[in-house]
Design goal:
alpha/beta; Rossmann fold; 10 strands; binds adenosine-5'-triphosphate; binds magnesium ion
Length: about 290
């Protein structure tokens, strides 16, 4: 296994799960969860190009995610973030290497691994209740587990909106519904591919808190793709910074702050600045033209 570089030790702060002391790329079980650990071993994925060559989307990814851990994947467009989520979801197979969930190889899609996308993809002809119930029906569990529908609508704050159709919901509400639809299958792992990317900044920050609250209640592992550095620092136990050409893990950065977190404290801003530097987005001014 290639050691993950770049843990950011922060003087005076206690080591977070997976920080120094733990083997590289691993973290202690978080939030009391005992299942939902993911092991990614030297995973590579390439896709055939129409010109007959292969496009290497991912190369040699090693990562161990602990049960209940919150991991974000961040990196430039095309660095393989969605590809990695699809491999964990079992929607694609790695070209080489493998992925295990609690020690079992992932060989295809399964309700134990829920997926939420940037677009909520609700069925427009079904009301919210029926959208959320869809997974139960598809798995033949509706008769026994129908009581879960109001429970999960409540969990995401849509208790009063079960009879409403998707086109009557705001973007944030629609994304809550798609979270409920994934959670009702009681996955061990929730995979989130830029789930808040289409929301306005205020709704987005509210939804970040909602996601943390849901994680607390459900005690599940979350792996989330984002392009938003603040979001990554606010939410994550560890941030996986990826680079493109081919996609690989550049650094794994523990976030050593207790929750709830404040976005405006110096430690938070320092870590944010560090990640922007790694991503080459920190910016630079030759000579300050103004003073504040
Ligand atoms: N089904 C596919 N067939 C061919 N190439 C693909 C396929 N899926 C992804 N790729 C290629 O793999 C690489 C990684 O794509 P991926 O969608 O994982 O990137 P990403 O990091 O999620 O990007 P973005 O931030 O834009 O969503 C890209 O070069 C992409 O063109
Ligand atoms: Mg993507």
């Amino acid at each position: 296994m290639r050691p993950a570089a770049g843990a950011l030790p922060s003087p005076g702060t206690p080591p977070p799960p997976g920080a120094p002391g733990a083997p590289a790329g691993t973290a202690a079980a978080a939030g009391g969860a005992t299942r939902g650990g993911i092991t990614i071993r030297d995973a590579s994925k390439s896709f055939p190009h129409p010109d007959g060559t292969e496009v290497p989307a991912l190369s040699g990814v090693d990562l161990a995610v602990s049960p209940g851990e919150f991991i974000t994947l961040i990196g430039p467009s095309g660095c393989g973030k969605s590809t990695l989520l699809r491999l964990i979801a079992g929607l694609d197979r790695a070209t080489t290497g493998g992925i295990l969930l609690d020690g079992r190889p992932i060989e295809g899609p399964d309700a134990e691994r829920g997926l939420v996308f940037q677009n909520p993809y609700l069925f427009p002809w079904l009301n919210i209740e029926d959208n959320v119930a869809f997974g139960l029906k598809a798995r033949g569990r509706f008769r026994e587990e129908r009581a879960l529908v109001p429970r999960y609508l409540e969990l995401v704050g849509l208790g009063r909106f079960g009879k409403v159709f998707p086109h009557h919901l705001s973007g944030g509400m629609a994304q809550r519904a798609s979270l409920a639809r994934a959670l009702i299958n009681r996955p061990l792992v929730l995979l989130l591919d830029e789930p808040l990317g289409a929301l306005d900044a205020f709704t987005r920050m509210n939804m970040q808190d909602e996601i943390l609250r849901i994680r607390e209640e459900e005690r599940i592992t979350m792996v989330m793709v984002t392009h938003d550095v603040d979001e990554a620092v606010y939410l994550s136990d560890r941030i996986v910074v990826m680079t493109a050409g081919p996609g690989r893990v550049e650094q794994v950065i523990p976030v050593p702050f207790a929750r709830p977190r404040a976005r405006n404290i110096p430690d938070f801003l320092r870590l944010r600045a560090r990640i922007l530097e790694i991503l080459n987005f920190a910016g630079r001014i030759e000579e300050p033209a103004y003073q504040i």
